[in-house]
Design brief:
The chain has 10 helices and 10 strands. By secondary structure, it is an alpha/beta fold. The strands form 2 sheets. It has a 7-stranded parallel β-sheet, sandwiched between helices. α7 crosses α8 and α9 packs antiparallel against α10. The structure holds adenosine monophosphate. Adenosine monophosphate binds next to α2 and β6.
Length: about 300
Amino acid sequence: MQSLVVLGGRDASTYSVLKMIVAKTIPDLRQARSRFGPIAFVPTMGALHAGHLSLIQTARRYARDVVVSIFVNPTQFGPREDLTRYPRPLEEDLDLCRQAGVELVFVPDAGEIYRVGSPNVVVDLPELTQTLEGRHRPGHFQGVCQVVAKLFNIVQPQYACFGTKDFQQLRVIEAMTEALDFPIQIVPCPTVREPDGLAMSSRNRHLSDDERSRALNINRALFAADAEARAGAQVTSKLVATMQRMLLNVGRLGHVPMSIDYVACVDPKTLKLVDTLTAPVTCAIAARVGSTRLIDNLTITPGR
Ligand code: AMP
C-alpha cells in the first residue's frame, strides 16, 4: 500500500517507509530527488484529469521514477485572466498521483518559486511566442518559460512530458530546451478527449451543461477541417472558413455566448501561417465559451 510523506512546514514527518513523497520546498524536493536515478517529470497546474494521468503513464515508460509538480504559476496569467478562479483541489490531486504510483510530488507555493528580493528573469523565444496564444495572452509564454526553466533546474529530470493539447507551449518548451542546452528529452503526449471529443482541460469544470455542449463546436470544427482535408481540400483558407462556420453554428444554444480568439492553420514547427496543405499543418482554435477560455488543436497530414 502506498501512502504519503509530506516534507516541509508543519507537516514534516519521518514516515520514510511510505511511498509517495510530497515536497513543498526546494531543499526538500532536492533531498528527495537525490534518492532517485533518472527521472521523468510531468509539470502541471493541478486539477488533474485523465489527460494529466496519460502524461504520467507515458512518463513511466521513460523512467522508473516519476516526479509531478503541481503549481498554479502566477507569472503566466495576465492581469485580467483566471488566476484566482483556477481550480486547486490539492487533496484530490495528491490521491490521483498516489493511485498513479507517482514517486514524488512537488507542491511549492508562489513564495517558494518567486522569492522576495530575487530578480525577475525573462526567458523568451519571440519567433514562437508572438503568435496564437502569445498574441492573445501577452507575457504568457515568458511566464511559462520562466517557471519551466526553474522547475527543470530544481527537479533535474532526464525526460519531461508535455501535452500536445497545448501545442504552442510544447513547441516553445522544445525550442527553449534546445536553445538553453537543458540535458532533457521533451516527450510530446497526445491530447486525451472526452468520449464526445471535447479535449480534457482543468477549465472544463467551469462549464455549465449548455456551455459544455456549445464547447463541443471547437473539436467538431477541428475534425470537420480534417475531414475536408481528407476529401481533398488543399487551401487552408477553406479549412479556416469551415472551422469558423462550425464554431458559429449555435443550434438551440444561441443563449450561450461564444467568442473566437483565433482560428488558424500553422506549420507545427515554425508556427507560421500556412496557405496550402503540402505538409502536416496544425489547425488551432482558441475561443471563449461563457467566461471560460478554451483551446484545442489538431494536426492534419495531407494525403492521408
Ligand atoms: P496544465 O495543468 O493545464 O498546465 O497541463 C499540464 C500538462 O498536461 C501540459 O503539458 C498539458 O499540455 C497537459 N494536458 C492538459 N490537458 C491535456 C489533455 N487533454 N490531454 C493530454 N495532455 C493534456
